[in-house]
Amino acid sequence: MSVRLRIIAAMKQVAEEQQVQLPPLADELSLHETGFDSLAFAILVARLEDDLGIDPFTISEDAAFPLTVGDFVRAYENVPA
Amino acid sequence: MSPRELFALRDHLRPELKDRTISDARQIVPLTGLLAKTCLDGRLRELSGRSVLLSTSGQLMAALAMIELDGVARRMLLCPPDLDPHHVPALIDDAEIDAIVTDQPSRWSNAGVYLIIGAGLPKPALKLPSTERVTEWLMLTSGTSGVPKIVGHTLEGLCGAIIADGPARGTPPVWATFYDIRRYGGLQIFLRAVVGGGSMVLSQPGEALADHVARLSARGVTHMSGTPSHWRKLLMSGSAAGFAPRYVRLSGEIADQAVLDGLAQAFPNASIGHAYASTEAGVGFAVDDGREGFPATLIGAGRDGVEMKVLDGSLRIRSGRAAHAYVGKRAAYLADAEGFVDTGDMVELRGDRYYFVGRRGGIINIGGLKVHPEEIEAVINRHAEVRMSRAKSRRSPITGSIVVADVILTAGSADRGKEIREEILSCCRASLASHKVPAMIRFVEALEVTPAGKLARADA
Fold first, then answer.
1. Chain A residue nearest residue B398, CA to CA
2. What is the Cα–Cα distance from B425 to B446, expressed in whole angstroms?
């Protein structure tokens, strides 16, 4: 499964657990509009770290937190594994 | 001289009580007749009025030396087996140590203390010792970092709860504990055995749990204590089958309903209870109704001279059983101006009962919201297929940290892992605020337990 698909699957899983109604996950969708709160994002990032072996938001201290779903996915895709 | 009678441990070794022993995995030493023996090669007189550091390789030797030294030495500092050698100079200085009793003299030859007396198995004594003073018992706190604090007790304070409970009825008990007797919880059991007229079976480091339990059964142990982590390990091991104590006690950690129920199932004929005690506050109370937490009626001016209150969420105890001071030049005050010791154990009132929720210092901060790992573990442990769990924080770039949990399942449950994880999480969601629900649950084979028998939380 590609990084993108794994991220989308993890988001759906977290959304289900946190009882968040996810809108269709388009690249332009702002993360705010996903309905995820900071706890849901924290869980997502930790799961992805275990799954993919990377946490792009800790590696680079000055990395701005992404604004859209597309930015979020690219943050993972751009980290050399 | 005051007419008040001095009592030391030796005064509880009445010769009319027969067949009493103290044993470890290697030796059985009769307590009956011990008064006429010496484990210090007859050199006890040299230790009269001295501040003695007691460091032995095993508990049995420590037990024999305690009996001989109490009432003669000025002070007796009990060194637990995991004492960090780097802390020794500070402890010697603070406790004004001027003699060492040890079965490893070479280890102590460079400690800067002139008088070193070797300890060995009892030999007939030429002269019977007599009790001449109240010895100060010094114990070390079992904190995880820095030089441990030295806590000062007297035998009278240490035995407060034992005297209040009165002697055990029926045949003399055979006591055992998973604890080391050089720590508060273990010392209580050793003192119960000596003062209450029973026998004692000591634990042995490195001994396999199954061998330990076989030894407990073979020596007829009737009364046993340990931390909830100790007991969970016993329940997990499958070795409990042949063992049938009549009295099972938990202390040192929060006894949740799951472990109390698990023990009630494993030992249907035993009285199962939990006690609250700490090295500083002494024995607070015992709960024998089989339920977690304690009745709110225990708070207030209490029974047996133990007074308790809850302030800022933590349990405070004023009691004759509490330690009288931290010892040392820079020692902090142990109690507040009114004599209450702040235990640092946080409690919560629900209905007519208080429940322990965790340690003040153990709080995890989740994006500004506070969580005690213990309250999460108590919920996870309710699942029938969970044996033991540990909640801890995991660093998060988003919220600072999140809660994750490591869980040990009962034997044979592993293939149901996915369902069990879901069941645990839905139980957590039903009873905990959302930030306390573990973000991840990992199934593990083992969880680290500290030398003091508590779940290791160093990274929490």
1. A42
2. 21
B425 in contact with A, Cβ within 8 Å? yes
Question: What is chain B's pLDDT, residue by residue, as a tens digit (460 residues)?
Answer: 444 578 899 988 877 778 899 999 999 999 988 989 999 999 999 999 999 999 999 999 999 999 999 999 999 999 999 899 999 999 999 999 999 999 999 999 888 989 999 999 999 998 888 899 999 999 998 766 788 999 999 999 999 888 888 777 778 899 999 999 999 999 999 999 999 889 999 999 889 999 999 999 999 999 999 999 999 999 988 888 889 999 999 999 999 999 999 999 999 999 999 999 999 999 999 999 999 999 999 999 877 889 999 999 999 999 999 998 899 887 888 899 999 999 999 999 999 999 999 999 888 888 788 899 999 999 999 999 999 999 998 988 888 888 999 999 998 888 898 899 999 999 999 999 988 999 889 999 999 998 888 999 865 4
Tell which residue, B99, B124, B127, has the closest CA to residue B112: B99
Domain that includes residue A33, residue range: 3-77
With CA atoms as reference, report the closest residue to B205 among B449, B457, B459, B460: B449
In chain B, where are the structural domains located? Answer: 3-348, 363-443
Residue range B363-443 forms a domain whose CATH class is alpha beta
How far is the C-alpha of B50 from the C-alpha of A38, rounded, in Å?
Answer: 61
B205–chain A nearest CA distance, Å = 36
| Domain count along chain A | 1
Per DSSP, the three-state class of B303 is helix
* B397 → closest Cβ in A39, A43, A58: A58
Domains B3-348 and B363-443 share a fold: no
CB A72 within 8 A of CB A7: yes
Residue B296: helix, strand or coil by DSSP? helix
- Residue from the list A39, A50, A58 with its beta carbon closest to the beta carbon of B399: A39
Quickly name the fold that domain B3-348 has: Rossmann fold (3.40.50)
